[in-house]
Amino acid sequence: MSQIELPVVDRPGPPGRDGADRFHEECGVVGIWNHPEAARLAYLGLYALQHRGQEAAGIVATTPDRGGLVGVNGPGHVADVFDVEKLDALAGCAAIGHTRYSTAGDSSPKNIQPIQIECKFGHIAVCHNGNLVNAHILRHMLVQRGSIFRTTSDTEVLVHLFAKSGQTEELEAVAEAVRQAEGAFSLLFLTEDALYAVRDPRGFRPLLLGRAGDGYVVCSETCALDLLDGEYIRDIEAGELIRIDGDGVHSLKVFDEAPVSQCIFEHVYFARPDSRVFGRDVYKTRIKLGESLAKHTGVDADVVVPVPDSGLIAAIGYAQATGIPLEMGLIRNHYVGRTFIEPRQSIRNFGVRVKLNPVHAVLRGRRVILIDDSIVRGTTSRKLVQMARNAGATEVHFRVSSPPTTGPCHYGIDTPLRSELIAAQQSVEEIRQYLNADSLAYLPLESLQDSVEEERDRYCTACFSGNYPLAVPEPDHARSLFGKERH
Ligand code: SF4
């Protein structure tokens, strides 16, 4: 795979949520074609994809008389945005939906997707999982030519390219628009006559095709298909554009061939463990990561404790490989909302404890191996080590089921600045000291690549290896054109 070594500078990825100590997926998409309850199915699909974005959701559907498109969207979880009345208003037999993650403090409603416009081709709606690395260049060009942008989202660039196309056929106009985009994009376009699904030539983000009844489903992960009682047909290929219309599914290759660079972090953390992404069971891959972690970083201890929920499956693999029992020494509160009001009097580690609480009966007097999928800033991991010690653990060994994350992502994942990634700044021993752990070890990069077997060359590992498969924009230029917001 041809790769570009980026200089080690503080080059930001898409702007991160201030202070967040996790990477965040930046969107899930679902499209339904030819189903009498298309919007309801899209709604259920979004429920299954809620983990890919929790700040806003939207659905756009055709109308029963094919007289345009109608949409409902709003901030919050899927359950907050839709009710029976709103779904009843989306009565056509085709729909697309989107769950979105954006940065704190700038989740403007105008950026909620799907984006919907009317142009010479009629009505069109677009939703996107990914990040266009040349959006700033395209936006500048479009503004020079008179386009007026409504949002700060890079996705709107595609809408303008489509609307301004010199092509006369809708399909050609979609193809012309996406051909000009570079970066990560799993996209859905809905018009009055067709549903289009496109995956960028490197296939950074997942997208698959399935069936539900007599209709078709396109979605980010198979867990959405499962909830719809749907049947998996196949992945949309990297570089493939499909059009679904009254005559069925039509497939086109519209991009020049490029080396495939699927995101390996989907297997480590982003995708749900009950999904298949990139043709591979996420659960099995995570078990393998845990087994490899045990093989390379084993340590004598009494109990394996996952950091829930993200470290759970790798911890099962680790425990199975070592024979050390796995117990739930940390319990996650699943009912924590997006914000909470802290008490005026300080409670130690309040922010973490509202989400995770130690089980004293598991930790007291025992040598503990804590397992998590990654360490971003290190602040949460440090608090968890302290929490385990306070609960009586005699030793705390921290194990991470991925290599040190040393660089930001530019392909659709919300990451902090390189200067905020602890592994970009400190050695493993320095991080161990910061965490106050008895030992700390990460999964070697080689083992992470082994987990996807013979397909290792078809994966991006840039945030671990520094080998960025696509050049990225200079941050100041991109930000001056887009502000802080991403889709
Ligand atoms: S940089 Fe990391 S998170 Fe981004 S696509 Fe590559 S592997 Fe995935």
Structural write-up:
- With 487 residues, the chain is of the alpha+beta class.
- It has two domains: 263 residues, Glutamine Phosphoribosylpyrophosphate, subunit 1, domain 1 (4-Layer Sandwich), CATH 3.60.20; 172 residues, 3-Layer(aba) Sandwich (Rossmann fold), CATH 3.40.50.
- It contains 18 helices and 27 strands.
- The N terminus and C terminus are likely disordered.
- The structure holds iron/sulfur cluster.
- Iron/sulfur cluster binds next to helix 17.
Q: Strand pairing plus helix content: what structural class?
A: alpha+beta
Terminus-to-terminus distance: 29 Å
List the ligand species: iron/sulfur cluster
* Gross CATH architecture of the largest domain: 4-Layer Sandwich
Strand content: 25-35%
Number of helices: 18
Give the full name of the CATH homologous superfamily of the largest domain: Aminohydrolase, N-terminal nucleophile (Ntn) domain
Largest sheet: 7 strands, antiparallel
Mean pLDDT: 89
Give the overall shape. Answer: elongated
- Which spans have pLDDT < 50 for at least 5 consecutive residues? 1-19, 476-487
